[in-house]
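Most newcomers find our protein records easier to grasp once they have seen one. A learned vocabulary of local backbone shapes supplies the integers on the structure line. Here is such a record, shown just as it appears in the course material:
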Amino acid sequence: MSKPLTRVLSLLELLQTHGLLSGAQIASRLEVDIRTVRRYIAALEELGIPVLTEQGRYGGYRLVAGFKLPPMMFTDEETLAISLGLLAANQLGLAETTPSIASVQAKLERVMPSNLKRRVRAISQSASLILPKAHGAENKEDLLLLTDAAHGQQRVRFVYEAENNVAQLRDVDPYGIVFRRGHWYLVGHCHLRETLRTFRLDRLGKVELLKHSFLRPAQFDAATYLNQSMQNVPRQHPVSVLLHTDMASASYYLHGLEGILQKSDEGLLMETSTDSLDWFARWLVQMPIAVTVIKPTSLWDAICEHVKHVQGNFKIV
């Protein structure tokens, strides 16, 4: 959206919120001169929005009394989606500050019927979401640029610092952006490696948009690809365990890892790998599911040590 149009809409927002405003007040808020304010007023009038000009020392501009934009109509499901979306944005750190979330909600409420205003406020004040905190220090401008590039199917260039602290220049066709367990990831075709790759956004630097366009593979799902690639990363300790439960119950605790499960007569066989048997032992113990350790035997040792540690932290008095 161009700046002049954005400022015309901002002027409309100011008049709806504050009523009467002088030309000087509007110019100050929009950071333009008085002549430009007059052009913006004329633009509103051309759009059919009635603006009154009051002369004199205390004069200024205001909308015709009783004029309102048509109310935004939402179903109950849409209202819930909007309210929970704002809660999630705040929790995930998508906005720089809490006031910006409140500002979005206030703008929506100004054009909502009274019954929907009450419902949105009730949800925002009564509902809570417990979501993973964002661990990385992602640049919000980079996040917006990459989402735009993925949507417009336009190539990007950035400096990527991998875990070994080696920085490389990458040209990537961005297929999608995914938030997973506290980090944002970019999934796309890397022209340096000539294959699909994932990149953590907090390790990106000097992101820029290139003129090259690309065609994303049909029906490509970035979240599915990221989950599968994370599951297939080779790690230090191969692990095989049998979960004595069904797929529906396991899905509640595995959070997208169902792809590594195989059905068997006694339950679900999980064959994967881990870099930390201690961590894997803690993860297994916290699930209310009976487990048989097939391999390695050192995983069973790690489970026993964890159970002893937990028992040692509790005393009967």
